[in-house]
Design a protein that fits this description.
The protein has 203 residues and is α/β, with parallel strands linked by helices. 44% of the residues lie in helices and 20% in strands. It is built from eight helices and nine strands. A five-stranded parallel sheet has the order 2-7-1-8-9, with helices on both faces. The protein has a four-stranded mixed sheet with strand order 4-3-6-5. Strand 5 and strand 6 form a beta hairpin. Helix 1 (18-28) crosses helix 7. The two termini are 17 Å apart. It binds adenosine-5'-diphosphate and guanosine-5'-monophosphate (5GP). The site of adenosine-5'-diphosphate has 14 residues, from helix 1 and helix 5. Guanosine-5'-monophosphate (5GP) binds next to strand 5, strand 6 and helix 4.
């Protein structure tokens, strides 16, 4: 059976463990493609162009928007972030699942334009645990952590608009459940249009 891949949108508060869980999932699912976003923010130490992000200028990003080269985009902390459309369409057509790790505003744009996209919201087991993880990661100042905790409350309010909630209690368990959700999501009738039409159009 030849099917397109599934477009998977993965969101959740900063520090909920999106990167960690996705890393674990991709280790055992090398057939899935991670969509490398474009951004105007500066690379952090250890980040590489084309691996973590495509790091571009504001001029280039605005050109990408004007030419329709991004599937969705947003501004976050004064910088542009967006998902390059070309590679996503190519990978989906080749039958690969494509995973977008993006914030809630971009996720809602994807939901609007691609109703068949599968939206998964990652949350930590508790607010206190989120605070512990952000502090433990040690990549932001105290003020930045407070800002992210405040943002987390707003982001959590968007969770009901997603298809599934993934509680990241332990990493291996969450990565395993993510695999189950992606598999289950493929068989919702709304994502089986081609399959169902194919049957009806058969001679
Ligand atoms: P995000 O990508 O959502 O911002 P990260 O993947 O960077 O979050 O995780 C935030 C911090 O929490 C990291 O230090 C990571 O090692 C830790 N972490 C992630 N998942 C878990 C988990 N299930 N249990 C304990 N710590 C975790
Ligand atoms: P960071 O600067 O910490 O890497 O990312 C900041 C936020 O931007 C995170 O919530 C991340 O998920 C989100 N993000 C990363 N890439 C994209 C993208 O292409 N589009 C949107 N809408 N958000 C993105």
């Amino acid at each position: 059976m030849n099917r397109n891949g599934t477009l998977v949108v993965f969101s959740g508060p900063s520090g909920s463990g999106k990167g960690t869980v996705l890393g674990e999932y991709l280790k055992s699912h090398p057939e899935a493609a991670f969509s490398v976003s474009a951004t105007t923010r500066r690379p952090r130490p250890g980040e590489a162009d084309g691996v973590n992000y495509w790091f571009v200028t504001r001029e280039r990003f605005e050109e990408m928007i004007a030419k329709g080269e991004v599937l969705e985009h947003t501004q976050y902390n004064g910088n542009y972030y967006g998902s390059p459309a070309g590679p996503i369409r190519e990978q989906l057509a080749a039958g690969r699942d494509v995973i977008l790790e993006i914030e809630v505003d971009g996720a809602m744009q994807v939901k609007e334009r691609f109703p068949e996209a599968l939206l998964i919201f990652v949350m930590p087991p508790s607010f206190r645990e989120l605070e512990r993880r952000l502090t433990g990661r040690g990549t932001e100042s105290r003020e930045e952590i407070q800002g992210r905790l405040a943002a987390a409350r707003q982001e959590m309010a968007m969770a009901p608009r997603y298809d599934y909630i993934l509680v990241n209690d332990d990493v291996a368990g969450a990565a395993g459940r993510l695999a189950g959700l992606i598999q289950a999501g493929k068989w919702v009738p709304a994502r089986c249009g081609e399959l169902l039409r194919g049957f009806l159009e058969e001679e």
